[in-house]
Amino acid sequence: MPDEKSPFLKYLREDRLPTIFCPGCGIGTIINSFLKGVNEAELDFDNLALVSGIGCSSRIPGYIQSDSLHTTHGRAISFATGLKVSNSDLDVVVFTGDGDAASIGGNHLIHAARRNINLTVICINNNIYGMTGGQISPTSPKGSFGSTAPYGTTDNPFNLAELVATAGASYSARWTTLKIHHVVRSIKDALKNPGFSFVEVISQCPTYFGRKNKLRSPVDMISYMKNNTVFKAQVPSLSRKELEGKIIVGEFANTKKPEFVENIKELSKSKSDSEPIQNSAYLEEF
Amino acid sequence: MTKEVMTANKAVAEAARLVKPKVIPVFPITPQTSISEYLAQYVADGDIDAKYVKVESEHSAISAAVGASGAGVRVFTATSSQGLMLMHEIIFAAAGMRVPIVMANANRAISAPLSIWNDQQDSIAQRDAGWLQTYVEDAQDALDSTLMAYKISENDDVLLPSMVCLDGFILTHTVEPVDIPNQEDVNKFLPSYNPKHSFLDPKEPMTLGALADPGYYFEARHAIEIGMEKSIDVIKKTCKEFEEIFGRKYDLVENYKCDDAEIVLVAMGSVCSTIKAVIDELREEGEKIGLLKIRVYRPFPVDEINDAIKNCKKLSILDKNITFGIGGALYSDIKAKINKETYGFIIGLGGRDITPDTIKEVYEKTKNPEKDVTWVGLKKEDD
Q: Quick one: pLDDT at residue A77?
């Protein structure tokens, strides 16, 4: 271990360390990538508000030295929506997982994307419910094993990055924990995008997904990612059979679109020439 | 009959296997999770001939349960805490539609702050919905109560859903020996479900949950109250039938050394075992103390409570829940219905340990009361 402390340690609540994450979990990599992305986007760290729901990924804000809301299962994006519209100057980031965002909270995800509200959602997709111990999630690949599918699931999984892009987000991308530089750059772009930004990071859960799917070690899981990742640009040249079981990485949306809070501001300006609702909670202070 | 060492969660899953449900929509949540896992395994292995639906949330789990029960088949589901909170809307709808669903609830505290540990606030928050509620003391009780719940709920005089409440972790994650009844005996006790009402039968169309204007709604709600009242006798009869077949005795309440007691503690769930041990100890010291276990909380067994406590001087109610501003739910119910000097104690919220000393402190504070409602087990300011 090098003596030198991580440059990001100052952003962490050191008294809360070590984390609860299992050995080999991808979440640590993603926390690192996020802090690097914040740095590269030159965001004011004090202006950051983190929101999460329930699940392994939702524990992240507990370790980061910023304001945070730890909410109920699936509702992080709804809480974040309230936070953003009440004070649109804040940089609001939601940490979520495949269960939190796509299962119990799926409705909120697509509606936030539809509104294109300026939130950054980082979805750590490990293809399984980790916190409760390895049940099938809505992104578990067809045929994969979980404790609620002892002989393999027969359900079709969601393609989250594509779903969110289709629902109307101005930025949506998918990467893996294997190629950190993609994740960092994508988080930076997401933070800078003035609209709904969704970064799906395919992450390894050796404890549950790996154990139940013959990928027992973190290395096995990372190798699997390495051998099965396809860039979005390559997709047109591949047959459907060649794409079976592949993780397609890249940007699924990156456009400029009117943003939800801006739309409200413009409407109130055009109809009543009044000041927008933003920061109304703080008006007395100014 | 076989005897096996198991958790109360497995006992519940075994009961669910024995009642042969046709549909099991379920969503995992700590500390209920292993129920959903056992059932997934049983269905996958063909031990239960049911459709197991890996739904996307508890709201969907109970909604699917209502749909399936409305189609006239036996349904099982299970949840806990936040999951039950998310079901809240459908919990009322299920009672209103008179679908005899049985659901296990692994009792766990409610957010915020977030807690996965035990208290009974979650199911208590559903007490006004029109569901029957049983609070079990151990794993055997969990299995037996689940079996009985079907027979009671499916009775034509009742037709209300049942919630079997088992204390999270204390029961769901600890093991003890449990008698698993054999299938023939269960079949005898609980024949297959043949609803007399034409539940969503296309040949005889009907609507569940339709809009009821002020000319109908009042009577529909009154009918739930009638079902709840009638369930008292149905529960007694069911407990007797259960005892005849399986040899284990249950009732709405359990009277533990109340007859000559001066102070009777009233409680629900697993804490009753701790209280019984304390009572045995204090009785040896000459203290006249007893326990009235409320096994069935809804319907509220007023006559049975009055009968058990008629000789005592004071009641001491232990609640693992709080109705802010008034005291515990059981305390306020007893204050409303029972005419006796009564003190309330809030204990064990969010998994705070309830030790024999907690019970002794409750007893001492009932002997020398300072106020109506006391929180026992709070940290001192400098702790």
A: 98
**CB B84 within 8 Å of CB B91:** yes
Q: Do A149 and B27 touch (CB under 8 A)?
A: no
Confidence check: pLDDT of A207 > 70: yes
**What part of A 61-120 touches B (C-beta under 8 Å)?**
70, 72-74, 103-104, 106
Percent of chain B with pLDDT over 70: 99
Using the predicted structure, report yes or no on whether residue B1 has a pLDDT greater than 80: no
pLDDT bin (cut points 50, 70, 90) of residue A4 is confident
Please tell me which residue of chain A has the smallest CA distance to B39: A148
Q: Tell me: domain B2-246, CATH 2.60.120.10, correct?
A: no
**Which of A54, A131, A145, A147 to substitute to test the interface with B, most B CBs within 10 Å?**
A147
Name the residue type at position A227.
Answer: N
Instruction: Give residue for tokens 């007490």.
Output: B127
Query: Counting every residue, how long is chain A?
Result: 286
Say yes or no: domain A7-282 is CATH 3.40.50.150: no
Supply the ipTM of this predicted assembly.
Answer: 0.89
The proportion of chain B whose per-residue pLDDT surpasses 90, expressed as a percent, equals: 96
CA A132 to chain centre: 19
> Domain map of chain A by residue range?
7-282
Map tokens 């009277």 to a residue: B255
Q: What is the pLDDT of residues B94-103, one digit of tens each?
A: 999 999 999 9
Chain B (113-152) residues lying within 8 Å, Cβ to Cβ, of chain A: 114
Tell me which chain A residues have a C-beta less than 8 angstroms from the C-beta of B28. Answer: 129, 132-133, 135, 148
Confidence (pLDDT) at A281: 46
- Provide the whole-model pTM: 0.94
Q: Where are the domains of chain B?
A: 2-246, 253-375
**Statement: residue B319 has pLDDT above 50:** yes
B2-246 matches B253-375 in fold: yes
Neighbours of A231 (CB within 10 A): 10
Q: A132–B86: do the CB atoms touch at under 8 Å?
A: no
pLDDT tens-digit readout, A47-62: 999 999 999 999 999 9
CATH of domain B253-375: 3.40.50.920
B200 touches chain A (CB under 8 A): no
User: Nearest residue of B to residue A74 by CA position?
Assistant: B57
Per-residue pLDDT tens digits for B174-209:
999 999 999 999 999 999 999 987 678 888 888 899
Look-up: residue for tokens 């994307």?
A113
**CA nearest neighbour of A265 among A278, A284, A246, A249:** A278
Residue whose structure tokens are 């076989």: B2
Q: Is B230 exposed, middle or buried (0-12, 13-18, 19+ CB in 10 A)?
A: middle
Closest Cα to residue B135, out of B297, B300, B329, B13? B297
